[in-house]
Amino acid sequence: MAIEWKGVMPAVTTKFTSEDKLDLSTFELNIKAQLNAGVHGIVLGGTLGEASTLSDEEKRELTRTTVQIVDSKVPVLINVAEQTTKNAVLAAQKAEEDGAKGLMMLPPMRYKADGRETVEYFKTVANNTSLPIMVYNNPVDYGIEVTLDMFDELLKCKNIEAVKESTRDISNVTRIKNQFGDRLKIMTGVDTLALESLLMGADGWIAGLVCAFPRETVAIYELQKAGKIKEALEIYRWFLPLLELDINSKLVQNIKLAEVATGIGTENVRAPRLPLVGEERERVLSIIEKGLQNRPTLPNYKSL
């Protein structure tokens, strides 16, 4: 399955039992809710997926399980976030063996690689897998920016196809389009800039709050795509206080609380993360409760 870099692709949370094991039953419940809403792909093992706490075998189990659940309806991607080039290559090859159809790749972790090192890292992985790659460009959180000049070199690898654009600079969408046209597909990666990025030409949305609100997220995408901007804006304005839960150091706990509220998740996180408590918890619950009270009636967005 070739990947069409478009639409909404949830960066799904990883579900855990109270005994800190993978909760594949609740995970399947959430994945099916995403599919029923009409998402265009599934992204595993990102920040929201608590990737840094997962063992290699858990990542592989999640990949294989998700591939079975989606049954070729949409592509399954897994995040590669490694400290060494060697391990990144191995992760890519394991993902391919387990049935993933694409990779989301971060620059090297921990070590702040320079531009030459970062380009070589991505190219080495690309040259050792047949899977299509989406480069995750998030200098705000990870300290390394993949510049347009670096993409000039990276795009010599045919399977580097897309960027998860998380620089927080909306004009970067236009810069990428001006320089690369359709050669580099753009998936916006910041929930609070999603509609703005789509309207500026981004091809799709790697989303966070979609984990709890899949139908609303897909509706925004489909409405704007159909030119129904006013209708998309109405939902997006309702959604924004919830979307802001994604741009927070406790985004995993925030979004898992939202999943509980919408009946498609649990609050369990893996240590060192802990569930929210006290005033912080009450503040997040208040935002979620207000969102649910004012939840919009959606149009039949699937028929647009």
Automatic annotation (TrEMBL):
Its EC number is 3.5.4.22. Keywords: Hydrolase, Lyase. Gene3D superfamilies: Aldolase class I (3.20.20.70). It holds the Pfam family DHDPS. The keyword Lyase applies. InterPro entries: Aldolase_TIM, DapA-like. One of its GO terms (molecular function) is 1-pyrroline-4-hydroxy-2-carboxylate deaminase activity. PANTHER family: N-ACETYLNEURAMINATE LYASE (PTHR42849:SF1). Belongs to the DapA family. This is 1-pyrroline-4-hydroxy-2-carboxylate deaminase.
